[in-house]
Amino acid sequence: MRGKEVESLWEEVREVSLGNSVDRLHSRPTPIQFLRDFVSQNKPCIISNAISHWPGLSLWPAPSYLSTALSSSLVSLHLTPDGYADALVPHPLHPSLCFVSAHVQPTPFPQALNLICQPPNHLVAYLQQQNDCFRTEYRELESDCDGHIPWASEALGCLPEAVNLWIGNHLSQTSFHKDHYENLYAVVSGEKHFLLLPPTDVHRMYIREYPAARYSYSEESGEFRLELEEPVRYVPWSSVNPYPATGNEEQERSKFPLYFNGPKPFEVTVKAGEVLYLPSMWFHHVRQRPGDGGYTIAVNYWYDMQFDIKYAYFNFLQSLPYQSTDDPTIPESEWNLRNLRDHENCCLPST
Amino acid sequence: MRGKEVESLWEEVREVSLGNSVDRLHSRPTPIQFLRDFVSQNKPCIISNAISHWPGLSLWPAPSYLSTALSSSLVSLHLTPDGYADALVPHPLHPSLCFVSAHVQPTPFPQALNLICQPPNHLVAYLQQQNDCFRTEYRELESDCDGHIPWASEALGCLPEAVNLWIGNHLSQTSFHKDHYENLYAVVSGEKHFLLLPPTDVHRMYIREYPAARYSYSEESGEFRLELEEPVRYVPWSSVNPYPATGNEEQERSKFPLYFNGPKPFEVTVKAGEVLYLPSMWFHHVRQRPGDGGYTIAVNYWYDMQFDIKYAYFNFLQSLPYQSTDDPTIPESEWNLRNLRDHENCCLPST
C-alpha cells in the first residue's frame, strides 16, 4: 500500500465526521443521543455540567477531606523517577528503548497524597492503579460520586467493567496508547490535557514492540533500578513522544514524520466538572494541571466495547504496511515488524 | 495490497461481529437496542411481528382491494423484456456490457397490477419507482400501514427520507448494489429473497464502470429497444450475477473468483409480516416469490445514514487495488480502473 490512500483516510474521517475540534455538550445527553451521535460514530465529545450533583466535586479538592476519609486505606502508589510510567525509556543493556512500568508500592493514603502534593526531588508519585481501584481501594469515597454514568450505561447496555481513580501532579504524563474500552473520563479537580488521534491514524503512532521492564524503587537508597522482565516479553507501544525535550525536536520530527507532519491531534482540556467521552481504540496522550489542593483528581469508567465492523476495519488497516509516497524505495516491510492482529497484541490494562 | 490482508478482513468481520446468519428478533426492538446492536455495528437483522398491526397485512394480498383503492391512480410502471432492470446487459454496439434501466410507463394502477399478475410473454412489469412513491403515487394506501417505523425513527433521530412501494412477480430481480441509506424493508405479501454481503467485501463485487442505457418500449410493436444515454454516462456497478444461467456457471466462476470462492453471502428470506434491517452500504441482491394474490408487495423506508468513521474506512478499502495472493503477477491496477472516491460515484436512487 502506498501512503497516498491512507493519508486520504486521515483526511476523510476528519472531513466527513470529526471536524476540527471535539464537540462540546452543555448538559448530559440522552442515552440515544449519546449512542447515535458519538458511540456509534466512534467520535469523542466533552460534556459540561454532567457531574454537578457529585458531592466529590466540592469535597475532593481539599486534601484534608481525602486524608480523613481514607485515613486507614492502603493504596497502590505508582513511583517513577520522572513521571513517565508505561512509557519508553533507554534500555539498560542495548542502545535501544524498553517499555517501563512503575514501581507499585502499597502506601497509606495520607502519605501517598503528601508525596503527590509535595513531590521530593528524586521521585514522582501517581495514584493510577487501573484495576477497578475505585471500587476496591477507595470504596470509602463511593458515596461522593456516581458508581456509573447513568446515560452511558443505558446507551451501552451494561455497567462499567472497571472504575478507576487517578490522583497525580503536573509531573505525571501518560504516553500515547489506546484502550479496548469505551471510556467516560470525569475530572473532579484540576485539569487533564488530552491529545487525541482516531484509530484511522494508527500508522502515525509508529507502534513497535519493546521489551517490558519495571522500575524497582529502594526506599533505603532512594534510587530506582530498571529491571527487564524475564523471560522477555514484548509490548507493542507507540514510539511517538509528542513533546520532545528542547533540542530534540528536529530529531524526533525526522524519526516520526507521519505524526509530526500529518493532521494535528485533537487537543482537549477537560476541566473539573467535565466529562470526556474517549471512544474505544482512540490513541490518547495525557498531561495534567493540579487544582487548588495541589493535585489533579479524576474518575474514569471503562465500559466494554463492541467488537464490530469498525474493529475489523481497524485490524485490517493496521495489518497494512505503510509505504511512503515520497520515497517508494523504502521496503513495505519497514513499518511492519510483525504482522500481528490487533487483539493478539493489544495492551489491555492490568486487571 | 496483497489479497491476504483483505481476505482476513472478510473473515474477521464475520468472526467478531456477523456470525454465520442474520439475527432474528421475535418482536420489535427498543430504539436503543436497535441502535446499539445493529445500526451502530452496521449489522443486519430480521424482525418478526413488527407490523402485525398494519391493516395492509390482511388487505393488500387481495388484488381487488388494491385495484379498488387505487382505481384512479396513475403509477410509474417499470417494463423490461426479462425482469432485469438496473442490471448489466450486452452493449448494443460493442462486445461488452452496459447498465440498463427500465422503460417507465405511467399506467393506471389496475392495468399495471394485471400485467404483474398475468405476465405476457414479451415483457415483465414491476412497480418499483424509488422516489418516495408510496407518499405520492400510492397515497390512497397510507392509512393501511405506518408512515415510518417508530422505533427506527427514534433510534436514527429522523423520519424516513423516502418511502417506496414495490409490487412485482417472480420474474423481477434486483442485481447486486448498495444504497447510501439505512433501510427498513417490510414485506406485506409474498416473500423477498436477499443475498447480503457486508461493505468489507467490496472487492468481491467487481464494481466496474458501465455506460448507462435505457429500455424504450413500443406498445405498438411490443418490442424493446436499448438506447445508450447521450452524452455517455458511466455507472459503477457490480459485475457479479450470483445466479448465472445454466451452462454459464464455470465461466462466471472463473471471471469472479473472489465472489464465488469467498465466504458465502448471507441468504435471507423475508416473509410477509417481517421487516429486514438492511444496513447502509451493504451489497444486496433481491429476488421474490409472490403471495396468494399473485404478487409480492413490500414497503421500504430509507433513512439518512451517518457519514462516519465506517464510511471513511469503506472508501479507504475501496480505494485499494486488490492483488491476488495466488497470482502476484497481476498488476495492482487491474482491479481498479479508476481510483474514485465512493461518494463521487455512488449510485444514488433517482429522486
Automatic annotation (TrEMBL), chains A, B:
Pfam families: Cupin_8 (PF13621)
Highest taxon above the source species: Eukaryota
JmjC domain residues: 125-318
Gene3D superfamilies listed in its UniProt record: Jelly Rolls
Annotated signal sequence range: none
InterPro entries assigned: Cupin_8, JmjC_dom, RmlC-like_jellyroll
SMART domains per record: JmjC (SM00558)
Coiled coil start-end: none
PROSITE patterns: JMJC
Matches recorded under PANTHER family: BIFUNCTIONAL PEPTIDASE AND (3S)-LYSYL HYDROXYLASE JMJD7, HYPOXIA-INDUCIBLE FACTOR 1 ALPHA INHIBITOR-RELATED
Family: Belongs to the JARID1 histone demethylase family.
The name this protein goes by in its record: JmjC domain-containing protein 7 isoform X2
